[in-house]
Amino acid sequence: MKKANVTTAVKKPSGFRHWFHSLRGQQTIVTILFLAVPLILFFTFTCIPFFNMMQFSLYDMKYIGERTFVGLDNYISVFTRDDILQSLKLALYYLGASVIQLSLALFLATVLSFKTKFASFFKGTIFFPYLLCGIAVGFIFKFFFTQGFVLDTVLSWVGLNVNTLPMWLKDTSVNNFSLAGTSIWRYTGQCMVLFVGAIMSVDPNLYEAADIDGANGINKFFHVILPSIKTIVVLNIILSISGSISAFEPPYVITGGSFGTATYFVLMDRIAHQNLKVGLASAMAVVLLGIIILVTVLQKVIFHFFLDEDDNGMTYKERRASRKRGKAAAIGKERDRV
Amino acid sequence: MRMRGLSVSQIVRKVIWTVLKYIMLCFCSFVALVPLVSCVVTAFKTPDEYRDTNVMTMPGSWLYFENFTTAWEKARMGRAFMNSILVLVVVLIGSILFSSMLAFVLNRFKFHGNGLIRNLFLIASLIPGVAMQVTVYQIMYKMHLINSLPGYMILLMGTDVISIYIFMQFFDNLSTSLDESAILDGCTYFGVFFKILLPLLKPAIVTCMILKGVSTYNEYYMASLYLQDKNTLGVVSTALRVFTGPIGSQYNYICAGVIITMLPALIIFIIFQKQIYSGLASGSVKG
């Protein structure tokens, strides 16, 4: 077929024009034209940097100038340098924050999906912080946490003594809690909106059925809402693992990573763009990528075995259980017969 | 003792539940608002008031705008807003056009590499942006795109996986018989895309515009990395950087600056509330 096309193209000049106007030809041209720009951008700003990252991680180098091959030394540094190990520990604060954030968001979403007065006001105020730009959030909280300023004033209203309160951003025993708290402030609303969206898509008949059965709010939550939106909840829980390791903006804009608040990414940014140890920073990025891929595989496995439903609405686990039950029943029948 | 079919204990439980619910909601809204309200209060204070009164005491006059004008000038907000609008317009048009074209081709045509491209984009979406900037910086440096507004725009226009997935989902729901009948009527594939499908994509375009618009307007890290010239290349998200310098602790100006950058977001939010919520919810489904 192709050969014939080529020969006709050579014989008659109108052959190319014919191909050009044919559906197949048009498809090819549209495909090439439409893919060109996105793919060029993709290769320049994603693929090439990715392979560079792999390569750089094996070198001791700056952005310009000499580079020396050091093998896996950078990776060894990632797992032995005190500051990097310390920064990984900070992920626990943000993991804790995301647990609070997710449960709070789930609670608020549930409450706001039922009849509530001023629901859109509450939803709006809790969501709005998500729309602020990072550096504005940074200044707001630098101001908020300054000694004797907003937080201390509010706490003095409820009777706490201002003089005994710690320096929220400088005291290393509390400052990571403060920063993780700002991340709750900023992202709970977004999470809540996602959950509200998921709850809205639950079949309303289920609620009616639950009402007829005399279910109260808590029953409805555990037996109707949670099972219906478990996929998005589990997805968010799993994503918060990689999200907490890659926590970046709160410390970056509020403390700049000083006073022991440098998370993994803040440290990586400093190592790459201030200390210009591009090799080490690349190794850090590759290690983080490894962690993210692990988490993604974990997510796929969990979804495959527990959440993905087949045509009968059964998950892998349920199918296996029902198969086992079937077998047991069959064996029982055999025994009865004997 | 029954009222509307409910026993007393049920009514009591319901009342307690309702009270608890509203207490919780009010508390959360209070926590969400306090940092913002304290900022507004401080932005209207005269320097004397700022120095002498507690942060949460109200300013003497709500019509004192000195702080705002000072912040506007110091942070070169005029310039920053012009730049931000330019970036927004170009990036939104570019990324929506590119991702809808990509989604169209991937959804409608079968060709070698279709699945490969889909998977590549999916994997790319897993890589956090901050990690990539370690090496993207070098490429930008080599292409002389550091300290250049077009360079920054091109970078933001790049792979926008969320938009691509929103468009792909949308194309899934648009029947191919639409394309076919148009082709029978003598329309080309270009015509099908630009004249027939693109207008139908409107809801998806609105969603993508909101998601991409919010993230572009607020994008801070890349802007601070690639637009280092504060005088001419500031965008709204980086304009406030000037306050980290010598006048670092004069919060009456800083708060005014924060409110200036916050205002457009607030206005857009009030107008497009519904679209923002539904956009976020639909953007997360594939994410």
Account of the protein in words:
The complex is a heterodimer of chains A (338) and B (287). In chain A, 75% of the residues lie in helices and 2% in strands. Chain A has 338 residues and is an all-alpha fold. Chain A folds into 2 domains: 1-43, no CATH class; 75-307, MetI-like fold (Orthogonal Bundle). A two-stranded antiparallel ribbon of chain A has the order 1-2. The longest helix of chain A has 34 residues, at 23-56. Chain A is extended, with a radius of gyration of 28 Å. In chain A, 36% of the residues are buried. Chain B folds into 2 domains: 8-64; 74-286, MetI-like (MetI-like fold, Orthogonal Bundle). Chain B contains 14 helices and no strands. In chain B, helix 4 (77-108) packs across helix 11 (202-218), helix 9 crosses helix 10 (189-200) and helix 11 runs antiparallel to helix 14. Chain B is globular, with a radius of gyration of 25 Å. The termini of chain B are far apart. At the A-B interface, helix 3, helix 5, helix 6, helix 7 and helix 8 of A face helix 1, helix 4, helix 5, helix 6 and helix 7 of B.
Number of strands of chain A: 2
Based on helices, strands and strand pairing, what is the structural class of chain A? mainly alpha
Indicate the proportion of strand residues of chain A.
under 5%
Overall 3D form of chain A = extended
Order of helices and strands of chain A: HHHEEHHHHHHHHHHHH
Mean pLDDT of chain B: 84
Using only C-alpha atoms, the radius of gyration of chain B works out to: 25 Å
Helix content of chain B: over 70%
* Main pleated-sheet profile of chain B: none
* CATH topology descriptor of the largest domain in chain B: MetI-like fold
Strand tally of chain B is: 0
H/E element order of chain B: HHHHHHHHHHHHHH
Q: Approximately how much helix is present in the residues of chain A?
A: over 70%
CATH superfamily annotation of the largest domain in chain B = MetI-like
